[in-house]
Amino acid sequence: MGYTNSSMVAYTKFSPNHSGQRTMAIDRITPHCVVGQCTAEGLGDWFAKGSTQASSNYGIDKDGCVGLYVEEKNRSWCSSSNANDQRAVTIECASDSAEPYAFQDVVYRKLIELCTDICRRNGKNKLIWFGDKDKALNYSLKSGEMILTVHRWFANKSCPGDWMYARMGDLAEKVTKALQGSDSGSGGGSGSKGTQATVLKDLSEADAIKKVGALFTADMKKSGILASVSLAQFILESGYGKSELAQNANNPFGMKCSLSGNTWSGSSWDGKSKYAKKTQEQNKDGSYDTITADFRKYPCIEDSIADHSAYLLGAMNGKKLRYDGLKGCTDYKKAVQIIKDGGYATSLTYVEKLCSIIEKWNLTQYDMKDSGGSEVIRWYRVRKSWADSKTQKGAYKILDNAKKCADQNSGYKVFDADGKVVYEPKAVEPVEKVPFLVKVSISDLNIRKGPGIGYDRVQFCPSGVYTIVAVSDGAGATKWGKLKSGIGWLSLDFVKRV
Ligand SMILES: [Zn+2]
Fold first, then answer.
1. 171 CA to centre of ligand 1 in angstroms
2. pLDDT at position 345, please?
3. Does the structure show a pLDDT above 90 at 176?
4. How far apart are the CA of 271 and the centre of ligand 1, in A?
5. Cα 79 to ligand 1 centre (Å)
6. For 50, phi and psi rounded to 5 degrees?
7. How far is the CA of 35 from the centre of ligand 1 (A)?
8. Cβ neighbour number for residue 329 with a 10 Å cutoff
9. Residue 422: CB atoms within 10 Å
10. Measured between alpha carbons, how far is 79 from 59 in angstroms, rounded to an integer?
């Protein structure tokens, strides 16, 4: 059959280190660990040197970028085994530089995708992993089967490292699922555990709700918002098919299905596990706020709901919690109202809609009833920062008392039991109006790269008059001012306003 290369390749630099066309058809994939968080270019440079005497077909760099170094049709020099590399597609993956040689999430997800692509192009619909070397190497593959092998079977090496070795079964399972399944809504690397939207698809509405409702019994108590409310949103949004929450509710309730990817527009991926979402939302008075929240990318409904809860509990509106009061709320009507008032939905009938879903399906049965058992006290702590427990002024059961304490101690905030700021006294001083002019008369005033003495020094500021375009708190000065030129920041303690 004809050989092809992956269309996922974003960077190509051919290595001279290969044996020419392979003598065996492709029926193995061998993932390796690079032992370093490399870039695709860096790996390419390394393989480009004849003296390296090594190569791989593909590389996945620390950001998930796929490099091509030896075409699939050729035998790479990768696994210390001619027999293996003649029939294997080899993939070097960016990893930590010490055992267990862990991969970044983005790398692992890309590996799943790349293996799926390799199988598909080479006519395979199943990827197999046996933890046992002899079994694997002696197994006679059936048509459509591809098998995973590891470098450690052929040389005295850890490769692909214990992190990846522990996930070989998961990799095989996810690739096979992607090859055989038709569900594309769950995005790269659908989970092996957990409840997939596809599981719900064939159930009746009542059964689907029951199944999702059962997820709440233990975990949702931790999330701190009512199961009935989460579940009602889940049901409602599965009809809209728009939000991340709905992406995992995709069609389970016989509603419409129009989902594409797994990201929200305007979201950014931190390369590990989180999306930060930023949106502009309009206030009643017409002004706009920037709303930010972190999301994980989730493979199953449980995670989807847990993250949705985390969003509702953690979303900030400026410095305030967007849905303040939601945590610990035990009244579903009140909780729904808080969500609506926070701006979650613009529909005027949102509260009624959600409440009627809760009532129709008796969803309050999934709320955790207070069993009267041991009550965990959720202390409010007053500190300068959560990390700095030594600054703690006190711990309070009642939020108002904690607030009072913070009000009396400048620079202190109130944190909930999870370390989230729930109250921060308004600074007494008015916000500085910028721009303004300052005069520098001393000869040894440092310009620093940021607002604080911890930032690198750029140079001394020549005396003269400067425009300050931003003011910030920072170590070593009462206030820092940013120079209009953009070169850096000045301590405002040593300048004169003009
Ligand atoms: Zn290796």
1. 17
2. 76
3. yes
4. 24
5. 6
6. -60, -35
7. 9
8. 19
9. 21
10. 14
**281-299 as b/e: b if 16+ CB within 10 A:** eeeeeeeebebebbbbbbb
In our burial notation (b when 16+ CB lie closer than 10 A, e otherwise), range 46-67 reads: bbeeeeeebbbbbbbbbbbbbb
Q: DSSP H helical segments within 315-410, as ranges?
A: 332-341, 350-360, 399-408
Provide the 8-state DSSP code for 102.
P
Strand partners, 68: 12, 58
Most confident of 84-93, 302-311, 442-451: 84-93
How far is residue 440's CA from residue 438's CA, in Å, rounded to a whole number?
7
Give me ligand 1 centre to Cα 46, in Å. Answer: 15
Give me ligand 1 centre to Cα 31, in Å.
7
Distance from C-alpha of 178 to C-alpha of 21, rounded to nearest angstrom:
29
- In one-letter notation, the amino acid at residue 310 is A
Q: What is the pLDDT of residues 391-436, one digit of tens each?
A: 888 777 778 888 888 888 888 899 887 788 888 887 655 566 888 9
pTM here is 0.41
Q: At residue 84, what are phi and psi to the nearest 5 degrees?
A: -75, -50
Is residue 323 a contact partner of residue 313, using CB atoms and an 8 Å limit? yes
Fold exhibited by the domain 197-366:
Lysozyme (1.10.530)
**H helix or E strand, kind and range, residue 137:** helix 133-138
- 32 pLDDT band (50/70/90 cuts)? very high
Count other C-beta atoms under 10 Å from residue 370's C-beta.
8
Fold for the domain defined by 436-497: SH3 type barrels. (2.30.30)
Q: How far is the CA of 180 from the centre of ligand 1 (A)?
A: 29
Distance from the alpha carbon of residue 33 to the mean position of ligand 1, in angstroms: 6
Please state which architecture CATH assigns to domain 9-180. Answer: 3-Layer(aba) Sandwich (3.40)
Distance (Å) from CA 145 to ligand 1 centroid: 23
Compute, in angstroms, the gap from residue 87 CA to the centroid of ligand 1. Answer: 15
88-93/58-60 β-pairing: parallel
Alpha carbon of 73 to ligand 1 centroid (Å): 20
CA of 150 from ligand 1 middle (Å) equals 7
* Residues whose CB is less than 8 angstroms from the CB of residue 348 and which lie 6 or more positions away in sequence, other chains included: none
Tokens of 9: 């390749």
Confidence of residue 273 (pLDDT cuts 50, 70, 90): very low
- Domain limits of the chain? 9-180, 197-366, 380-423, 436-497
Q: Are strands 274-282 and 267-269 parallel, antiparallel or unpaired?
A: antiparallel
Q: How far apart are CA 1 and CA 389, in angstroms?
A: 65
Using one digit for the tens of pLDDT, what is the confidence trace for 9-30? 888 889 999 999 999 999 999 9
Distance (Å) from CA 93 to ligand 1 centroid: 9
